Description:
This protein is an alpha/beta fold. Helices cover about 45% and strands about 15% of the residues. It is built from eight helices and nine strands. A nine-stranded parallel sheet has the order 5-4-3-2-1-9-8-7-6. Helix 1 (about 15-25) crosses helix 2 (about 40-50) and helix 1 runs parallel beside helix 8. It is globular and about 45 Å long. The model has no long low-confidence stretch (mean pLDDT about 95).
Amino acid sequence: MHREIIAILRGVQPNEVESIGEVLIECGISTIEVPLNSPDPFESISKLARRFGADAQIGAGTVLDQVDVRRVADVGGQIIVSPDTSPKVIRATKDANLAAYPGVMTPTDCFTALSNGADGLKFFPSSVLGISGFKAMSAVLPANVRTYAVGGAGPENFRDWLSAGITGFGIGSALYRAGFSPSDVASRANDIVASYDLAAFQ
């Protein structure tokens, strides 16, 4: 079963990333991003891609330039997630045959991202936009656009966001913070997956 949850491992260390990735996948979360403002992020992405690339989507977050897109591709990453809408980054991502998920906040951002080839839209920070803002904006978007709420979406409002038409969620500090052990992450991941399944499938 594929769940539309992106685990955001901001601050993860290369020496722990495989054990964290393993528990996430065991718990049912199979899309993992390592933000590039983490320690040695390319090493972490490389380790995840080598070990789990056949079973999970692995990639980078906080990607701000084309050079880093190429570096992610070179170490086996599959997805590029950004906090902003950069046509150059989106086009570089597609040129590298990776999936592009730029950050958006306005209709202009959304259509700029889509016209440059984005595979999905990351509404960030979703707590600022809100569910009502997303519903208003999604009314003018193409029906098949994949949309993700990041920064303010979680178990307490999964159902409300899904009812509004969101595709999925990016979960960061509620799932992983620097210093969390694999068992810490497993406990949080199990709770998040259970809440997501209840909201999405029942």
